Amino acid sequence: MPAKRRAAAATDGGAPKARQSRLAKENNITGEEEGEIKEAFSLFSEPMDGEKEGVIPIGDVRRAMIALGIPPKDKTELAEFTSILDPEDEGFATYPSFVAICALKLHAREHTSEAHLAEVDEAFSLFTGGQPTAPAITVTHLRRVAAVLKEEITDDLLRDMILEANGGAGVNQGVKKDEFDSVMRRAGVWR
After folding, report:
1. Model pTM score
2. Across-strand partners of 94?
3. Distance, C-alpha 105 to centroid of its chain
């Protein structure tokens, strides 16, 4: 008897990715990003006839954006967003317009900010055993992390991970901080 599709798909090692909707495609965001936006929207949404996802009161737009980690820079930007979200001054925003504004903020997010660099430093030092000045993550560092997580991973796989992350520069080169940042972005940890 042939294996079921679901069982075969589960063996690929990764969690299923959120499917990108038409709205996500229009706004050039991933399914995961849209899921986060939808979750923040639903925290504040209220039902309304004709609106599948409901509406969000304009007064809650700022709080929803803060929940997403993309707050308006200042009152001027918030006022601009509310005028776009509620041009007829009805007091609420619909889901599609909220997604569009959040997508703009996600695309405009600055990755060279001090907060981002501090986050990279902190995550890098977790891999290097608390050594923020370590030049690179080595096989020894990865072996220690695997042991802490109680994962049994072969040294061959750890070496392959290093080579994948550093573009094949060599196992002894390790993974430098900028390469680590790049890997984490590709994995979707940072945008």
Report:
1. 0.52
2. 55
3. 13
